[in-house]
Write a structure and sequence with these properties.
It is a single chain. By secondary structure, the chain is mainly α. The chain has a three-stranded parallel β-sheet with strand order 1-2-3, with helices on both faces. The longest helix is centred in the first third of the chain and has 19 residues. The radius of gyration is 16 Å and the shape is globular.
């Protein structure tokens, strides 16, 4: 009986609210640093320069290598020791946030 309801307007509204909140938060920054796959995907969709960090079971690295390694404003680093240099390089390469089209 629970599966007969396929549309819940309250959940739909809340989901869109969370999505808009995430977009707003991300668009406020010149550079995003994340170890979350959804953070990488959202940054990519919004064309926000970002540094993608590994997670403990290589999902992030595998996703990046398979799907997004050719995106110029996305950079994956394997070691935390690379972070400071990566931040400097990304901020130099992308001095201001890219506007939404």
């Amino acid at each position: 009986p629970h599966f007969k309801i396929t549309h819940n307007s309250q959940i739909n509204l809340a989901s869109w609210g969370l999505m808009h909140s995430g977009i707003y938060q991300f668009k406020r920054h010149r550079l995003i640093i994340t170890n979350r796959l959804h953070g990488h995907i959202l940054s990519t969709l919004l064309e926000i320069p970002h540094i993608f960090l590994p997670n403990s079971y290589y999902k992030n690295e595998a996703f990046y290598e398979a799907w997004t390694s050719q995106i110029p404003f996305a950079r994956f680093i394997k070691e935390r020791s690379e972070l400071e240099l990566a931040v400097e390089e990304m901020l130099e390469s992308y001095p201001s946030a890219i506007e939404l089209n």
